[in-house]
Amino acid sequence: RRFSCVQQTAKMEGTFEVDMTKYKEVELDPWTEETLPAAKKAQLLQNIEVCRDAVVFFTACGSASGYGGHTGGAFDTMPEAMLLRAFFKGRPDKFVPIHFDEAGHRVATQYLLSCLDGDMKFPHLKNYRVGHAGLPGHPELHCTPGVKFSSGRLGQMWPMVNGVAMANPDKIAWCLGSDGSQQEGNDSEAARLAAARGLNVKLVIDDNNVTIAGHPTDYLKGYNVEKTLEGHGMTCFVCNGENIDELYAAMRKVTISDGPMAVVAKRKMCPGIEGIEGECHGHDAIAVAQAVKYLGKRGYTDAIAWLEGPATKANKKDPRTGQYKGCDFAKMGACRAEFGVAVCSILGAMDDTTRKEKVMIIDSDLEGSTGLKVIHQKFPDVFVQSGIMERANLQAACGFGMDKSRQAIFSTFAAFQEMCISEITMGRLNHCNVLCHFSHSGVDDMADNSCHFGLNNFFADNGVEEHEKSSLYFPADSAQLHALIPAIFWDNGMRFVYSTRSKLPAVLDSEGKPFFGEGYKFVKGKDDVVRKGTAGYIISFGDALYRAMDAVECLKAEGIDVGLINKCCLNDIDEDVMTLVGNTGFVMIVEPFNKKTGLGIRFGTWLLERGLSPAYSYVGATKEGCGGLWEHAYHQGYDSLSIQTACKAIAAKAKK
To answer: How many Å apart are CA 23 and CA 21, to the nearest integer?
Structure first.
């Protein structure tokens, strides 16, 4: 299964416009070399420079192609990555020779190391984040030759490295850290375990005072990486990460000393890159214009020509965009952004005193991605800019919402909902009012790949029957979202609204008008009969709905009279719709969630409980990701053509 998502045709040959022949391996023995020998220091500095140039170039390819990516973290940490490589080369008997990294967005480092090891060719890096190229936005074992671990989400790697150290007690295990990942509670637990057991785990932490939505010194006052770790029993050494002698001295000291220790490397984000040094947007893929300026000063004219020419020609859009039937792609909307707009409409109708008393919105460093930024801008008096601490932030929202007259709003990515299941239960047990928005649900447009898929959203509905209802909602387009939010805003209990990373087209009725347009009213617990059918029905939601819509229209044109239901209210049973679909020949669920945990495993039971037994099947996500953006739906098998094929199979079964 390894590298199963990589298409051989995507492996690029040819040239790499940064001269990697300047790179030469360096071997260092920290036990015998107290300072950097002059010749080795000179080569290390050259290695750092050429590797940083390479990172700027191929991550800028992601900007040029539209697949995006991340430059800053990998650029920042190249000095420590090169020193670690020299350690591993100089004393292979002493180390677990893996650059474990708890910040997956620094994946460019892992891809560069794979090329240096000969597992990939440098030209292939120009396919950074392109679908099926094996270069997704986080390192994952099944995707990329040479990658030695899957990073998971922030704060998930260090606890695993503790286990690696336990399995290799005679060796040193290193982990690259960051001031962002250190905000996660997992890292605090990992620090306590490492200190208690005296594990030979070493960290070098990039403390650049930048996360996605701000600067920790501004929004998380009191947070200090080294003091936090020291409080857990770790010994820390602080140094200037851009001074190679200081960095070597600190990393050497923790290497030759027993027990868990950390080097905290202070630096600005993207040091030396004009326009983004010290800025939050340095975290993302460098813009082509800034990359051109950076590379131009270094004489990389061929790299600039590539960025301004061939790099822009990647097929970043679904080739069928605009061709889907029953949808209006001229009216695309991002539900994840519109969530904040919808909430602002409600907040704006309240007077200042009532709003501040009754509502609190808390962010987990993702306000620009989950729609909360507009709330922060318009209503800062009720907005809490917090750190990368999803579980604690959700609990704070629950605490505010314990009073039935108040509403709290919490938002992050759907993948991180899995980290918060216990906190969701706690909120339910305390009858808290929290409207949770989990964006980036499903797989669509998810270049960060498998570890960022929001697949198990139904886990949120984990209370017992006597508990207050926890409603799950997944609107079909931005118009339905704007109808949904005011209808549920003041409801009691834990409620969950899901949205995709991708923009969605407007859903049209059979006359070509917006289905959720003028005259539409959202009714809690009711499904939407988008198309009627006599042969059977497809039940769908989220980004799967417009694909299913196209499939239904195509099947109708072929003489198979299939209907379509939009199930925005995911865990509600609409008895009228159950009767409608259950009395036809077949029912097929098409969803962007995990096939093992989604709607499909439930809906069939609901039918049987009502004495309804149409032929039944369900389609959902079944594979790890293939990288890319639009490619995921095709890879998982819920694109229009795949839906049509599956529907024809179940329709044929229904006739027997």
So the answer is: 5
The radius of gyration of the chain from alpha carbons, rounded to an integer in Å, stands at 26
Residues 6+ apart with CB under 8 A from 656: none
Beta carbons within 10 angstroms of residue 236's beta carbon: 18
For residues 440 and 500, the answer to whether their CB atoms sit within 8 Å is yes
What SS3 class is residue 47?
helix
Report CA-CA distances (Å) from 48 to 109, 483, 585, 613: 11, 53, 65, 65
Nearest CA to 280 out of 374, 212, 363, 364 is that of 212
Q: Which amino acid is at 624?
A: E
Q: Are 152 and 159 in contact (CB under 8 A)?
A: no
Q: How far apart are CA 369 and CA 367, in angstroms?
A: 5
pTM over 0.85: yes
Binned average pLDDT, 10 residues per bin, the chain of 656 residues:
52 85 98 98 98 98 96 98 98 98 97 97 97 96 94 93 98 98 97 98 97 95 97 98 98 98 98 96 95 97 97 85 94 97 98 98 97 98 97 98 97 97 97 98 96 98 92 98 98 98 97 96 98 98 98 98 98 98 98 98 98 98 96 98 98 90
Amino acid at 302: D
Which helix (H) or strand (E) segment is 383 a member of? Answer: strand 383-386
CA distances from 30 to 92, 97, 255, 257, 529 (A): 12, 15, 7, 11, 69
CB atoms within 10 A of CB 426: 17
What's the farthest any 2 CA atoms get from each other in the chain? 81
In angstroms, the first-to-last Cα distance of the chain is 36
Q: How many CA atoms lie within 13 A of 277 on its CB side?
A: 7
Both structure tokens of 362: 């808390």
CA distance 365 to 369: 9
C-alpha to C-alpha distance for 91 and 621, rounded to whole angstroms: 44
Reported as type and span, the H/E element at residue 341 is helix 335-348
Distance between CA atoms of 123 and 110, rounded to whole angstroms? 15
